[in-house]
Task: structure prediction
Amino acid sequence: MSPRQPAPPSTEFTKGLWRENPVLVQLLGLCPALAVTNSVANSLVMSAAVLFVLVGSSLLVSTIKRIVPSDVRISSYILIIATFVTMADMILEAYVPVVHKELGAFVALIVVNCIILGRQEAFASRNPVGRSLLDALGMSAGFAMTMLLMGTVREVLGSGTFLGVSVFGPRYEPWVVMILPPGGFLTLGVLLLLFSWYTRRGDARARAASSGGADVEEAA
Amino acid sequence: MTHGTPSAPPARPSASSQRLIATLGGFGALAGLLIVSVFVATSPRIRANKAAALAAAVQEVLAAPDRYDTLYVTGTTLSPTLPAGADADTAEAVYLGWRGGAPAGYAILAAGPGFQDTIRLLFGYDPASSQLLGMRVLDSKETPGLGDKIFKDAGFVEQFARVRAPLVPVRDGQGDGLPNELVMITGATISSRAVVQAINTTLERIGPIIAAHVPREPQP
Result:
């Protein structure tokens, strides 16, 4: 049996966007995905905070992976993650105070976001710095994509605006439930349904194509 | 579901206690250094943001005074100097506005339990006429689309520029036209009552102190 070939570096980035999307496939990070996607601005800032924490933690963890004893690796990762989250919290409070106030405790809660610790344990602690950086960037981009999608749907329907700019004009009666917690569950449910339907349809077509090819070969 | 390149984690021999302590101690020290550095870098800006937000709120609730003085509540009097041992950020204070050399009213901080969390607000007050001059919500986690009307509903907020203390909450169309009646928001009764209650409670306590204070404009 030939040794397993490592995946090309580009796939470390692209897998987070679709095939291993942290929210839509791994179902991680659902707490912020439900809680702060009531506006596009909140979704954007939360995604930027997750990008900062995930990239910073992955770079550090993949750099120091050989000197951290296995017994204290989780404690060390959490310490590193908490440091980056605290830094992100202070930077957001200094530069975007209004959005920071709206995000409330959810910036601090990035510490317990399973996407971050999951990537350290499953990837950054086993791979070189370059691949870990690509993986962190891809996962952050996949998270941001889902957050923006949810934020757009919820703000446009629930407030009638996009980034605070009116979309439907003054006569639109906002569908308020969309910016309340039930709107988060509803949007995520529909998104998961569409994602699953699209993925399964693609798989079914691929199976049909391969079995069709086999039939042709048999007939010949 | 996959979480990354499926390779075995690097085998690490069990480490000694000293090494475990040194690892966690080292990361702790690094974390402390990073957090303190970011704190030192961002705290002037965070303080400036808070001061600017307060100054903007004072301008709004006192209808744009020329300037304002900070007066600290010391026992039953107001003093322009910070009480000994008190912290300028946490000491209770009111803000006396000046317009054309005459007092333009006091801006007073109030807080009270809302529907979700504590509502913090600033209101303007003229002790001579017992009239409120304006109100601005500083912190609120009231329900989006419902309770947040306490600061988004212009009709509700405008009432605070002409109502007299103590405030009496009334339902829309059910008042007697008295000068201290304030019409509640339909669908956000708890939140709007919380605002009224916070102002009344604060004025009960601090109103006599302000009434006894003789404003003296400091010599330039």
Summary: The first strand of chain A starts at residue 161 and ends at 162. The longest helix of chain A spans residues 181-219. Chain A touches chain B through 46 residues (CB under 8 Å).
